[in-house]
Write a structure and sequence with these properties.
Blueprint (H helix, E strand, L loop, with lengths): L4 H6 L5 E3 L8 H9 L4 E4 L6 H14 L4 E7 L8 H10 L4 E6 L7 H6 L3 E6 L2 H9 L4 E5 L5 E2 L7 H9 L6 E4 L5 H9 L4 E4 L1 H4 L8 H9 L5 E4 L7 E4 L2 H11 L4 H8 L1 H10 L22 H20 L1
Parallel strand pairs: 1-9, 2-3, 3-4, 4-5, 5-6, 6-8, 8-9
Antiparallel strand pairs: 7-11, 10-11
Helix pairs in contact: 2-3, 3-4, 8-14, 11-12
Amino acid sequence: MFDNAVTRRLGIRYPIVGGTMMHITTPEFVAAIAEAGGLGVLASAIYRTPEEFSAALDRVRELTDKPFAVNINLFPMLQPNDNNVLVDIMAAKKVPIVETSGHHAPEDLAGKFKRAGMTWIHKCVGLRYALKVQELGVDMVTVVGYENGGATGKLDLGTIVLIPRVVESLKVPVIGGGGISDGRGFLAALALGAQGVIIGTRLLVTKEAPVHENLKQALVQADETETLLLLRSLNATHRTWANAAAKRALELEQKQAEFDEIMSVVAGVKAKKMYQEGDVDLGVVSCGQGVGLIHDIPTVQELFDRIIAEAETIAKRLAS
């Protein structure tokens, strides 16, 4: 029922993209998403050296023969390597799909993507950014509404307005996200004109997600009001779970603390340790409002099959 331009172009069973998550979308998790019928996206910013990145690509290929993508990060603070070098490695290894995201359009990389024959997806939070990358030759655009976890941008537009506004203005397929956790949200995004969805927070609470069980259980218990917007004072707004670390960071911002003091609380090394050791108040974790719709911890395959089955059931009921 949901075979369309996105599934055909990307070579995936379901029009579902797994959101890129720092320290989480590892080769193993990317492969689990791919094997379940979606598009897994490897987070290139995890890797400190080109050699580590190259080995990660090889590891994905060991685990799955399904298509996958790599995220090239355009946030200056999250670029441990030269993106030109990473794209050259991807081209040499014939990675089929690239996703870009960050503060600006990758004008210097667009030609590289085309010459390598990659399908290029750009993720952004507003129409003007989408139009810019369409001019550069992007193949698909992902837009995420204000409900989403992680970077929310400056526009504060909700998913239900953002998706149709972008769809009506672009010629390329649109993937939509922001708060999507189940078949209801999936079908709603398609009804708004998207041809695929991107899911992040819901995938965080799956059996294969490489985070501690303590965090998964805490997010199952969380509701839709338990998120915070951090780093707006630094022009880098992120929606996170409202744990002790996030509340401390927000308090420092409100007091106009020094940059280094704020960053010491939200540092990625603390989040990574939280994922590994299970102290759920140690670091900050990106988390969307869709956390309120999470009630269990399925496998990725169970989650995707459930989303599609629920969406099909609702679509048939509405049609009748």
